[in-house]
Write a structure and sequence with these properties.
By secondary structure, the chain is α+β, with helices and mostly antiparallel strands. It is 48% helix and 14% strand. The strands form four sheets. Strands 10, 11, 12, 13, 14, 15, 16, 19 and 20 form a nine-stranded mixed beta sheet that branches. A hairpin with a 7-residue loop joins strand 2 and strand 3. Helix 22 packs antiparallel against helix 23. It binds adenosine-5'-diphosphate and magnesium ion.
Length: 734
């Protein structure tokens, strides 16, 4: 897709190789993809075609070297972008940004203005492109902006291409931007991410310089491929449940007799209506230049996955937002609602997002590729050890970066990795690390080949280690996979954290090595000696974070405690990590977040937890009082009448009476839990962090009790009276 030899375009070019391959395949499907791929994206190719040479060079300078654009350049680019957008039917443009809501935001302005002579002219100036001014006071700022301090700016991110979002009668040019306050403080998820990418680049380049492998490399960035899980349910059923429409999850409901226990959904053949939906989602995403590739059924009934090819992290994060929005938008056209919540249904699997992260040079070299004789690949071992050290030192920050009310249902619930952050390395790398600890590694374990025992089947190349589904941070061949991100979350923040902590460890290692190397041009063996001794110490200090066993087991929880690894079970436990001196120094040192910016995030996350939980509790109370209790009372009345009628008929009424007592008892407990919950909501403390703990300790248990009561009622109240669709209906797609 992109043709310059510069960094991130290389990563993207590598990742979009499939496009050329599929075009070469010359079948109708591949041709269709080839025709629509990237048509609604103003990418580098289009800029090259449409911009004067000098301006195009300035754009590349801005993208790859962070050089400033002149006013004239900005005007020329804006005009070309506007012409392209209008040709493609756009009537409006917007600065598209990612405030701390975790969603995206956009304010549309017309591309046409009256010309004063009764007609209109189309216009997008350089200023319109580069800078916008949305009201900052109505977005979460965690104290950075008060209501009276409303000024905020959006600033064009030239590294992420503009795109057009279209519907039946609209087409809007969206310009990716960062969002900051009047005094330059980051109010969004993109600004710190971009800063973290800069920090990573600086430190990773030092390592390449040490090994003399930096020739021709202009920068290093992280690469990211995000697998997204989601549920589809029938739209009408979704809207018949206030819990789904308000909270995107069921607050009541019990598991049907058949759910996922037959393991017949995972990778099962995809239902035609669902496949139609997936194909349309993919078409829209291809059009937006999102290289989606993988689709399949997931474990739970009604659960699916979509995954793109990896790209540079900034673009991948923007694209991830587009994936979520597109899933939601297209679902309606197929009569579905798409649920991105982490735990929409109790008793069946929840949804996550697997965050595949690696490091790539501008020349397209994956720095986490161990290659064949890994023990000789010292540079790889440096990068691997940097990740090990980073994750061990900052496990608490990684945990905090994925903490929210919805993900709390998942982490540690034996379907997602535990809340204890550890690293899975697999047999080969673990062996290597053990060798390193003792001295110099001198062998690389090999996987060999698998003979399948039938003449007609091929022998398979076996990986040098098995996979581990229970590890939160797993090495998977040539990348690390953070498997604990929630399905509804923006991935920008977890990747900001990963980039920053790895930058710090690379800085540490580079400083160690540079300090010990006596000459500026050491011999290979001098270098080897210094590097190995630095890494040996890192392994000794941080190997406790490596764990290849079953992360779901109780033994691991005990073992992890012995090793001193943090086990931050819930969001209120996890968030304080953001306010530690360690975190403040880290983000300040690498210029990713100032103390005020970091504090504001801690406050926003706590407030979001509290608000979400409060909305859920209030929704439960209203469902209990307005829907479930009336149904239960009606059922009770029917049973009471049955008791009376049975007695009148001279038949022993014991059975009916027992049913009556059972329902009356459940109603009593259910009603009293609702009353109790209502009362507790009036006692939540003011301070957001205190409130979060209060909600977790006092409100959440009562919500659970209320749910248990409601689910008990659901199991005995006559089906014709039950006021909402049940799990059996929700989880069956016709
Ligand atoms: P899995 O078997 O783990 O489910 P998938 O194919 O579903 O694998 O997803 C793997 C993801 O990892 C894809 O998005 C893929 O593009 C991404 N990936 C592969 N290599 C890299 C890399 N070097 N950096 C970042 N992501 C990568
Ligand atoms: Mg996958």
């Amino acid at each position: 897709m992109l043709s310059t030899s510069d960094p991130h375009s290389e990563a993207i070019a590598a990742s979009s190789k499939w496009q050329k391959q599929s075009a070469a395949g010359n079948n109708a499907g591949a041709q269709r993809i080839d025709e629509i791929y990237g048509t609604d994206v103003f990418d580098q190719r289009k800029m090259r075609e449409r911009l004067p040479k000098g301006t195009y060079k300035s754009v590349l300078g801005a993208i790859f070297k962070g050089q400033r654009l002149t006013q004239l350049d900005a005007d020329v680019i804006a005009t070309a972008m506007k012409d392209w957008a209008i040709e493609r039917g756009a009537t409006h443009y917007c600065h598209w940004f990612q405030p701390m809501t975790g969603l995206t935001a956009e304010k549309h302005d017309g591309l046409s203005i009256p010309d004063g002579e009764g007609g209109v002219v189309f216009q997008l100036s350089g200023n319109d492109l580069v800078q916008g001014e949305p009201d900052a006071s109505s977005f979460p700022s965690g104290g950075l902006r008060a209501t009276f301090e409303a000024r905020g700016y959006t600033a064009w991110d030239p590294t992420s291409p503009a795109f057009i979002v279209r519907g039946a009668n609209y087409a809007t040019l969206c310009i990716p931007t960062a969002f900051v306050s009047w005094n330059g403080e980051a109010l969004d998820k993109k600004t710190p991410l971009l800063r973290s990418i800069d920090a990573l680049n600086t430190q990773a380049m030092r390592v390449l310089k040490i090994f003399g492998t930096d020739a021709g490399v202009s920068s290093i960035g992280s690469t990211l491929g995000v697998e997204q899980e989601y549920f589809l349910v029938d739209r009408n059923l979704y809207h018949a449940r206030p819990d789904l429409t308000t909270c995107d999850r069921t607050l009541f409901g019990s598991r049907p007799p058949k759910h996922q226990q037959l393991e017949d959904h995972y990778f099962g053949s995809i239902q035609p209506r669902v496949l139609g939906f997936m194909a349309e989602v993919e078409d829209e995403l291809y059009r937006l230049g999102v290289p989606v590739r993988t689709r399949h059924n997931e474990v739970a009934p009604g659960q699916y996955e979509i995954a793109p090819l990896f790209e540079n992290t900034n673009i991948a994060c923007d694209h991830q937002m587009l994936v979520m929005e597109t899933l939601k938008r297209v679902a309606g056209r197929y009569g579905f609602a798409c649920i991105l919540h982490e735990k929409p249904f109790a008793g069946v699997n929840g949804s996550g997002k697997h965050n595949n992260w690696s490091l790539s040079t501008s020349t397209g070299v994956n720095l986490l590729d161990p290659q064949d004789e890994t023990h000789t690949n010292l540079q790889f071992i440096v990068f691997m050890c940097a990740v090990i050290r980073a994750v061990d030192l900052h496990a608490d920050l990684i945990r905090a970066s994925i903490a929210n009310a919805s993900n709390d249902h998942r982490l540690g619930a034996n379907e997602a990795p535990p809340a204890i952050i550890s690293i899975f390395l697999g047999d080969m790398l673990t062996d290597l690390v053990e060798q390193l600890e003792k001295g110099a590694p001198n062998r690389t374990l090999k996987g060999g080949r698998l003979d399948l025992g039938a003449r007609t089947l091929p022998t398979l190349r076996r990986d040098s280690g098995d996979r581990n589904r229970t590890s939160p941070f797993a090495f998977t061949g040539n990348k690390f996979e953070l498997r604990a991100v929630g399905s509804s979350a923006s991935v920008a923040w977890p990747n900001t954290v990963i980039n920053t902590i790895v930058a710090e460890s690379l800085d540490y290692i580079a400083t160690e090595i540079e300090g010990k190397l006596k000459s500026a041009s050491p011999t290979e063996s001098q270098l080897e000696k210094v590097v190995k001794s630095a890494l040996q110490q890192i392994v000794k200090d941080h190997k406790r974070v490596i764990f290849n066993g079953d992360g779901y087991s109780n033994e691991w929880h005990e073992e992890a405690a012995k090793r001193g690894l943090p086990n931050l079970a819930s969001t209120p436990d996890a968030l304080p990590a953001l306010q530690s001196a360690k975190a403040r120094n880290l983000f300040k040192k690498y210029k990713v977040l100032s103390r005020a910016e970091l504090d504001s995030r801690a406050e926003i996350f706590a407030e979001q937890y509290n608000t979400r939980m409060r909305i859920e509790a209030e929704t439960m109370i209203s469902m209990a009082r307005q829907m479930m209790l009336p149904a239960a009372f009606e059922h009770q009345r029917r049973v009471a009448e049955t008791v009376a009628a049975t007695e009148r008929a001279g038949i022993d009424p014991t059975d009916a009476r027992e049913s009556l007592e059972e329902v009356a008892d459940l109603i009593r407990r259910f009603k009293s839990a609702a009353t109790q919950l209502d009362g507790l909501l009036g006692k939540v403390p003011e301070d957001p962090h205190k409130a979060a703990r209060y909600i977790r300790d006092h409100i959440f248990p009562v919500m659970e009790a209320l749910r248990a009561g409601g689910d008990g009622l659901e199991s005995i109240v006559s089906a014709d009276l039950w006021p909402m669709p049940t799990y059996r209906e929700l989880l069956t797609i016709r």
